[in-house]
Amino acid sequence: MSYTGFTPMMVQYCDYIQKSTNSNKKDGVLILEVGVDKGQTTYPLIQNLVQKDIKFSWFGVDIREDATFGQTINVMTGVDHFFVSNVNPDNSTVYYAINDSREFLKKDSNIYDLVLIDADHNYDTVKEEHSHLNRITHPGSLVIMDDYGGKLSSRDTWFHTLDSHKDLEHASHDLDTSCNKGGVTRAVDEFVESQNGLWVKHVMKGFDDCCVLLRGLNINIQNADS
Q1: What pLDDT, in 10s, does the model give residues 85-142?
Q2: Could you report the per-residue pLDDT of 156-198, keeping only the tens digit for each?
Q3: Which of 4, 94, 102, 160 minimizes the number of CB atoms within 10 Å of its CB?
Q4: Mean pLDDT for the chain?
Q5: Alpha-carbon distance values, 113 to 41, 69, 141, 217, 221 (Å)
Q6: How many CB atoms lie within 10 A of CB 73?
Q7: 213: exposed, middle or buried (C-beta count within 10 Å: 0-12, 13-18, 19+)?
Q8: Rounded to 5 degrees, what are φ and ψ at 59?
Q9: Bridging pattern class, strands 94-98 and 112-117
Q10: Average pLDDT rounded to a whole number, residues 14-21
Q11: How many Cβ atoms sit within 10 Å of the Cβ of residue 193?
Q12: Are the C-beta atoms of 100 and 64 separated by less than 8 Å?
């Protein structure tokens, strides 16, 4: 699932960050999207940010490269520069990395305002991804997790078992696939419970496939698209 329905809320949040006292950054609002796929979320998000004159830097990571996505994003208005994989992203507005999310996050040193996570939907991967959140976010950051609810919510799936990823033999091969551990739902709930109130979880009515995690930010996300 993409986060298309969350676009108005994400754009309003980015506008809030840009206008806040913490926004004096040369790169503008920093966004990380883990699990880009074909750009279903990226296109409307970037288009709206450009239209509203919100300065941003978008970092996307996916286990597979989508050539059409790369070609399309490279000609979008407002994307001044475009880099793929390990090229130095200095002075770019969009950086597209082809990598496993766990490997990417281990080396990532950015501090993001908005983080979207929709990669390998299993407990072990999501738990490891969340282990980096406190390091790559700040008080005020917003995180959206896909497949927290819905048909995939409590069920582990792994890239290497999917027909769409069968050509990627290395994908998630090191993970324990012998049993279901509770999927995204369990990993998210355990993370929030372990943080002693640092992170607050919201599930928005009508969008219960996803959940929103707020780090020390007191805003009403239920009405963020109004």
Answers
A1: 554 455 568 888 888 899 999 999 999 999 999 988 899 999 999 999 999 999 999 9
A2: 888 877 777 777 766 777 888 888 899 999 999 999 999 999 9
A3: 4
A4: 84
A5: 17, 23, 5, 11, 15
A6: 21
A7: buried
A8: -115, 120
A9: unpaired
A10: 84
A11: 11
A12: no
pLDDT surpasses 90 at 31: yes
Is the dihedral angle over the CA atoms 94, 98, 102, 107 positive or is it negative? Answer: negative
What DSSP character marks residue 25? -
Asked if 175 and 139 count as a contact pair (C-beta separation under 8 A), the reply is no
The residue among 89, 26, 77, 27 whose CA lies nearest residue 52 is: 77
212's enclosing H/E stretch is: strand 211-215
Which residues in 82-103 are b (16+ Cβ under 10 Å) and which e? bbeeeeebeebbbbbbbebbbe
Q: What is the structure's pLDDT at 26?
A: 66
SS3 115: strand
Q: What's at 186, amino acid-wise?
A: R
Please calculate the CA angle 195-2-46 and round it to the nearest 5 degrees: 95
